[in-house]
Amino acid sequence: MEHAERDRLLTVVRSTPDRLKAALAGLPKKRVMWRPAPGKWSIHEIVCHMRDAERLGYLHRYTEILAKDNPTFPNLDGDVLAQERQYRRLNLGEVLRDWRAARRECLAVLRTVKESQWTRIGTHETAGPMSLETVLQRHALGNDEAHLVQIEHIKTRWDVLSKLQETPKAVAAIFRGVPAEVVRRKPASDKWSMLEILCHLRDIEQLFVERYGKIANHDRPQLRMIDQDALAAKLRYNDDDPAVALREFQAFRAETVALLFALAQQSWERVGLHPKRGDFSIAANAVMHVAHDTNHLARLRALREQVG
């Protein structure tokens, strides 16, 4: 390994305490404890894992390789540790203090390493021989960078899913108490009424959940689009029943949220072929989905305000 590359890895290991602190700043407990999908760790559990990997894994490997000729070190099963140590019951503040102390010990050991020692070897019971600099590489990239990215993905996913869950409640609140004639009132001949916007939300929701399902279950499927104005005219949106349209939107949104909650993070990166956008991932569609909600909620609120 080139000296510059090793310095870069050491910089990552040194900077992680500050980066982790920033990543966790201001997060409420509910968000920290939230699991992004069945069987997937919460941010809380990831930090607990980082604490145990630091002391039982990396610190142990560094010291063993430096002290012994080709020592053997065991594989750490993170899932076993999570269960046996009851991660979800641990105090996160105490876990973070333990992790920082172990990281300081690792850094102290790494500062003692001489140039000739970086090629010293140890043998991992499942991964086989690895040099001290290979352990450093795994520490910086496979552990620190990977888990920091994982935490950011969970935060983003929480934001998206929370907003998608809240939209039906927001729509219902906007329509509550609004007279039927107002719900059907068009602000201009070429502009949609409140009811037409609601029907559009319902039908686009059906399209979105269809897309998510196709992408999740098929390799690069073809995705369809709809002509929203033609569909509004064909289905006579402004003659629809607002209560029924709202229930249908709520039902489709419940399907969307259930599907997205069940997906592992890697599934969010799966793509379908959009007619205009090309390769279009579940993650990108979800971000657009939230923006679509935000736009139409603003329009509904503006129309509602015109009532008074």
Shape: elongated
Instruction: Figure out the total of helices.
Output: 11
Oligomerization state = single chain
Distance between the termini: 71 Å
- The amount of beta strand, in percent, is 5-15%
Which fold name is given in CATH as the topology of the largest domain? Four Helix Bundle (Hemerythrin (Met), subunit A)
| Widest beta sheet: strand line-up | 1-2-3
> Regarding CATH, which class of the largest domain?
Mainly Alpha
CATH architecture of the largest domain: Up-down Bundle
Instruction: Find the CATH superfamily of the largest domain.
Output: dinb family like domain
List its traits:
Four Helix Bundle (Hemerythrin (Met), subunit A); mainly alpha; single chain; 308 residues; 66% helix; two-stranded antiparallel ribbon; three-stranded mixed β-sheet; 2 domains
Can you offer a commentary on this structure?
- This protein has 308 residues and is mostly helical.
- 66% of the residues lie in helices and 6% in strands.
- A hairpin with a 3-residue loop joins strand 4 (271-274) and strand 5 (278-281).
- The protein is elongated and about 85 Å long.
Question: What's this entry about, in short?
Answer:
This protein is mostly helical and 308 residues long. The chain contains eleven helices and five strands.
What secondary-structure arrangement, pairings included, does this model have?
Layout: H1 3-24, H2 29-33, H3 43-67, E1 72-73, H4 78-84, H5 92-111, E2 121-124, E3 128-131, H6 132-175, H7 180-183, H8 194-217, H9 228-234, H10 242-262, E4 271-274, E5 278-281, H11 282-305
Helix pairs in contact: 1-5, 1-6, 3-5, 3-6, 6-10, 6-11, 8-10, 8-11
